[in-house]
């Protein structure tokens, strides 16, 4: 062990829970990771993604130098070129001919600089962010209701509530530490109730007393029914409603709803209404099942309406709660990183606000109107209105709706700059100039989590190659465009101090976001900065908002919005399935980081389609076979996963696979760019599609210690211990399997080949120095091999084993991985449960350790327990 390298307190770079992480540099140049017991968000807990951070810090795949048209370049050359092309384009076509597309994963300091450069100096509001795909409807809903983008509550409300409603949120997988906090609170106070509203039966339903599998898109109907019932039962808070406008109109609109549209039984709806209305301390948590909709803002307001009418907001254990997805979605909103915001929650269209920010920045010009929102921005790229585009910290070729169209638009743009930490992504591939950014462990700054808590992210490792911090790259370009004095910071601390000072100006104009206590922060104080809740100013420090009924509209009142629910785009005879999309437990978005970790890749290793057994039967789909999903926008091929977790007609597919990991699994090629008219957020969860079996001539499974470069209709690659695996399927047999395998693995050697002509199976193994280097298994049916076993054979010395493709008697097949921390598979858990007649998750933990570290797999273990049948 390295002697006494100090532990550094930092923050997890994944979800919006914003867990504190203890990172200790180790002798091998990496980090040992633990939860920070002192951080208020997680109190020492981490989920599996956070725990595996140490496995994702590899140099492999990193972008090490700037590149111009693919060739390595020097920083000066690259920065000069970016500045010149942006300046020339602006000079010739005006400021609105350029755009930045940035990310809720940037640090506040990076984001601040990007926003200042575009809005204050270039003089356009064409800066938008992947938060448009994520939080825009919540922002719009908050601003309509409260007059500001304010999250009223705190995480501790989740523990203090008597009822938690989770709608459009798979908290168990997407905000695991908050889920665990709720699960622990419920265990301590079993009278606490949890309702999950989701068309799908997710892992989150594990703690639900009631699961409402409503019809997709019908949330506003349900919450309107709730508002109407609140009014009918006189459950409004007579004092609080004095602080509201629009109550009558909202109730009037709500009373029109027909609850049949939810597809729920009258009994279930009544239970929900009784519970909600009868429980004072209620928190309604919502996320992408609400936001990502063609009427997401209305859905948000339908929820806010109920909390406003009952005055259940801003007090202990109650309130609406938009849980943010990305680590700094909130910080991005605070700096004004969306095209329709200014800075510090000020309004771009308000001349007083605009002038105040312009004075503060000493900016030459400011846009008077909002810029282009993400979908419109890429349309403008497509039709040539935007001629220079800078994409930072996001992968739109994968994550934007109509992704193929977005890819074409970027490919045809005159000048595209991409800043990323990784060399090869679907988006970096299209860059004219590629700029290497430092990653999580290498950068200093701040992030804001879902409860408005600002935490330091601290540098824990030296930067890789020539990578530079995003704020510095932006400031260097700004300087080259002629604004060096206004972009002259030398540290993130100085940027934070400026941001905090500007927030004081905003606070004087009535903004909720005011952290002016930190305006003059020194480098030392910034180094020591403890996690704190905003606001932090002479006016207000931390705490909840709105309990006293004062809001940020000019008259100080909140607005209830009359909501007329809208159904999603109808399905048609040809495209009769509604495709739901979302996340899996162990991967993050486009997997550029989590995809490196074998541990995180074992839970779900390929893109899949969850489909109801009756639909599968109708369509002739078989479990573990492949399905082709298509509509006029594009087509995907996905592995079939037959399950009644989804309802008939409502298949689900994950968003994570890319051209790098499974080119036929990119799901956003199918999602139409239909957006919410208020927020501009795309409806990412309701594409209409046709589904048919994809029947390849052959199925394959490959493992290799080096690379695998498949060429066939379907493939999905994943990291395994000591190398890679790939699932394959092809429409036609190649002429020679040996040549195919050589190309696949980039090996010239003679493989050991075993054929079973009767079954049509072929197995080829490349052995070198007595060790297994690579193997390919081909069959006419989906290859029925033990992946968990084969995945451990690379480098092993017994090739017969490799060709057998199943565990020897001394090595039981673990099956799909459930507990990623202790490597425990589904088969072992099942057999241990039945042999020992285990009945609780804790008993499984005692027997196998599964579920005892990060706890992310506890809902799945519970489901296995529920499915276990103990004989007498
Ligand atoms: N493991 C993991 N965690 C993550 C991320 C990740 O990539 N991986 N990403 C982070 C980010 S950026 C975000 S934004 C969050 C997202 O967190 P979530 O919003 O919780 O995640 P999703 O899986 O996108 O969608 C949530 C649920 O919405 C449901 N849904 C679909 N349509 C409807 C509907 O009409 N009504 C209702 N009520 N529900 C519906 C889906 O079935 C799904 O279960 O997760 C964050 N955390
Ligand atoms: N159908 C469908 N589509 C969706 C969604 C859905 O639920 N359904 N969800 C949407 C949502 S909520 C979101 S948030 C988006 C997410 O989609 P994206 O933002 O496109 O996904 P990421 O993989 O997080 O992209 C981050 C990129 O930044 C790079 N990176 C990481 N750290 C840094 C850094 O410090 N600096 C720089 N410069 N680069 C860095 C990573 O390597 C990666 O390439 O997807 C959206 N798309
Ligand atoms: S819940 Fe997991 S992914 Fe989210 S911040 Fe905490 S450790 Fe990171
Ligand atoms: Mo997100």
TrEMBL record:
CDD domains: MopB_CT_Nitrate-R-NapA-like, MopB_Nitrate-R-NapA-like. GO terms for cellular component: membrane; oxidoreductase complex. GO terms for biological process: cellular respiration; nitrate assimilation. It comes from the Bacteria. PROSITE patterns: 4FE4S_MOW_BIS_MGD (PS51669). Gene3D superfamilies: 2.40.40.20, 3.40.50.740, ADC-like domains, BFD-like [2Fe-2S]-binding domain, Dimethylsulfoxide Reductase, domain 2. InterPro entries: Asp_de-COase-like_dom_sf, BFD-like_2Fe2S-bd_dom, BFD-like_2Fe2S-bd_dom_sf, CT_Nitrate-R-NapA-like, MoPterin_dinucl-bd_dom, Mopterin_OxRdtase, Mopterin_OxRdtase_4Fe-4S_dom, Prok_molybdopt-oxidoreductase. Its cofactor is [4Fe-4S] cluster; Mo-bis(molybdopterin guanine dinucleotide). SUPFAM superfamilies: ADC-like, Formate dehydrogenase/DMSO reductase, domains 1-3. Residues 5-61 form the 4Fe-4S Mo/W bis-MGD-type domain. One of its GO terms (molecular function) is molybdopterin cofactor binding. SMART domains: Molybdop_Fe4S4. Belongs to the prokaryotic molybdopterin-containing oxidoreductase family. NasA/NapA/NarB subfamily. This is Molybdopterin-dependent oxidoreductase. It comes from Paracoccus aestuariivivens.
